[in-house]
Amino acid sequence: MSAVPRRTAVALFASYLAALALVGFWPTPVERPLAGVLRGFLLFLQEQPVTAGIRSGHVEAVANVVLFVPLGLLAAYLLPTRRWWLAAVAGLLGSGVIEAVQFLVLDQRQGGVRDVATNTLGALLGALAVRWVRRRIVKPPTAPVTGKTIPGRNDMITIAATADVAETASIGDASRIWHLAQIREDAVLGSNCNIGRGAYVGPAVRLGNNCKLQNYALVYEPARLADGVFIGPAAVLTNDLHPRAITPDGTLKGSEDWVAVGVTVGRGASVGARAVCIAPLTIGEWATVAAGAVVTRDVPAYAVVAGVPARQMGWVGEAGHPLKRDNGGSWLCPVTGRRYRETGGQLIPAESY
């Protein structure tokens, strides 16, 4: 169910809610201008042998169901996969509010329990449709396979049989996901990514193209990794400022009991083995975090940091090698020959002077 961009779905949902509010809170029945047409259609149905038993109440009930089906569809699409049923709850609550206002405030409208029931049924049917499509029809190329490759348009996606890839995750062409790796719901991997054994990518985490997560790297939501990012073996990108398993009253914490904060990693940057990046922070493009470092504050672009807590030890270029200072005061990459200038604590490549 990833064909419609989330932003588009949100816009459609907002538009639908606005239209539903207009229909529900209009001071007079919205079907009144079409009363003659509807009456003629009902008479036509009653004249047919198969539909002779249809009455106006039946038509109204079907209309109520149809009116709330989009609510169930869009709400379930936007909700996490396992909480699709909340779309039906939203239909029940929304219908209850509309019918209560009609009953108490709008003299020319008739609110009732039957309308709440049919509206809720419509929302439930819409939610069930989304659940059915996700489980039965939409089988994206990211679904776990038995160690084989999945043909794409031009490239191949490889997912180990023991990997756990959510149905709602999006995996780019030519990406490889190895044994015991887990890609959670709504995560997005760009093309040509390599996810090592036992690595973890949290819900809705975003990876750009050509990213590499080494074995047992842990990237927790809502992390954002740009193109070409390297995360070393057993490195951790955290997401909780005040970690606790339980609330002050002793109950197990749920997702609603804390606010996740993320690590943002710029293009081409590297995080070494067993390094820990304490969110929220940003690691600039082409920066390097040394193995075993504990990063607690933002890392400038091209900087190399090390230690506990991490401190800047110098500068690196795009090739990842330490830069050397020349007699003119600029910095030189010994591999590419590229020059950089340091100004105000930032490194600027030569062509940007």
Please outline what is shown here.
The chain is an alpha/beta fold. Helices cover 28% and strands 20% of the residues. Helix 1 packs antiparallel against helix 3.
Broad CATH class of the largest domain? Mainly Beta
Provide the CATH topology of the largest domain. Answer: UDP N-Acetylglucosamine Acyltransferase, domain 1
Q: Strand count, sense and closure of the main sheet?
A: 10 strands, mixed
Global morphology: elongated
Percent of residues in helices: 25-40%
Which percent range describes the beta-strand content? 15-25%
pLDDT < 50 stretches: 138-154
Secondary structure: number of strands: 27
Q: Output the number of helix runs.
A: 5
- Classified in CATH, the superfamily of the largest domain is Hexapeptide repeat proteins
Identify the strand order in the major beta sheet: 1-2-5-8-11-14-17-20-22-23
The Cα radius of gyration reads 28 Å
Q: Assign the CATH architecture of the largest domain.
A: 3 Solenoid
Q: N-to-C terminal Cα separation, in Å?
A: 47 Å
Structural class by secondary-structure content: alpha/beta
Oligomer: single chain
Overall tally of structural domains: 2
